[in-house]
Amino acid sequence: MEDKLNIWVAQTPGYKLLDSGNKKKLEEVSGIRIVRSEPRAWWKSKLSQEEWNKAEALFEHEKGNWMFSAKGGSAHPEGGKNFDGKDLDFEFKDLKVKIKFPATSKHIGIFPEQASQWNFIEKKCGHGVSTGREVKVLNLFGYTGISSLVAAKAGASVTHVDGSRTVIGWARENQEASGLNDKPIRWILDDVGDFVKREIKRGNKYDAIIMDPPSFGRGPQGQVWKVEEQLVELLKICREAMSDKPLFLILNMYSTELSSITLKNLLEDLFKDGEVIAGELALKEENSERLLPLSIFANWSDK
Question: Which of 80, 133, 291, 297 is in Cβ range 3.0-4.6 Å of 54 for a Cys bridge?
Fold first, then answer.
């Protein structure tokens, strides 16, 4: 088995990382400048405070809420455009997704550092479909569904599972906005472990699995998820739920306490052939070579 450690640097039209530092990041999403906390950005920011103050949206980490330039004067003393925090449209290739500003969360519906993986999903699913096989994809902890939409658009049948009714509703909005209502996507509100175990009992198999587990979370019935206690078992049952000739498995982790080598070793326990690629997902700052690391990952594929 071949294995590599990599840094995948994503570039996504409509998104710019303008600067980072002091545990914050300054972004531009669909033309709106945003400031959010970023625990991985320990270094000093490069742009002046005046530039940071031009943000139209600011997530106040201490208070746990958003401020916008149209409310209370400005998000910053020198706020830029008049922005009221309404939904924005964001495009990835031919997909259209909604950027939102939830009242108590800094997450806006996209993780642009995953764009390299969206391209990987598109390529692998498209190739599988081109060979005449029906490609079935399982997306666990699927969030707002961009990976699901990419796979479906490439011709795969997708089962998307998440424990939050709100984000599944958001994902379905993205499906409609992208014009993919006719694509075979099952939206499942469930605890991911419980769902996979039932799929095994039902004899349902998947050619590809995508998972982005949080460090901690709760299922729709209050089931507790703790990654350090449950990830290994989840990976085992996911392997059991894969077809005889699987295409790929993607594992992302945003925990700062784990290493991509940990994820690589876990996947090598499950697959005795194919290729494991592990490393970090990162974004490059505009007009700079500096990278902001955001996630560790490990992908297995059949090559």
Answer: 80
Q: What's the pLDDT tens digit per position in 143-180? A: 999 999 999 999 999 999 999 999 999 999 999 999 99
Q: Is the pLDDT of residue 49 over 70?
A: yes
Class of residue 1 by CB neighbours under 10 A (exposed 0-12, middle 13-18, buried 19+): exposed
CATH architecture of the domain covering 7-99: Sandwich (2.60)
Task: Report the run of H or E that residue 148 belongs to, with start and end.
Answer: helix 146-153
Residue boundaries of the structural domains of the chain: 7-99, 110-301
pLDDT tens, residue by residue, 197-237:
999 999 999 999 999 987 656 667 667 657 767 889 999 99
**Cα separation, 137 vs 140, whole angstroms:** 10
Residue 138 DSSP SS3: strand
Sign of the dihedral defined by the CA atoms of residues 254, 255, 261, 263, in that order: negative
- On whether the 110-301 domain is CATH 3.30.365.10, my answer is no
Phi, psi of 162 (to 5 degrees): -150, 155
* Least confident stretch, 23-27, 51-55, 295-299: 51-55
The region, left, alpha or beta by phi > 0 then psi within -120 to 50, assigned to residue 201 is: alpha
Buried b (16+ CB within 10 A) or exposed e, 255-268: beebebeebbebbb
Pair type for strands 57-60 and 32-37: parallel
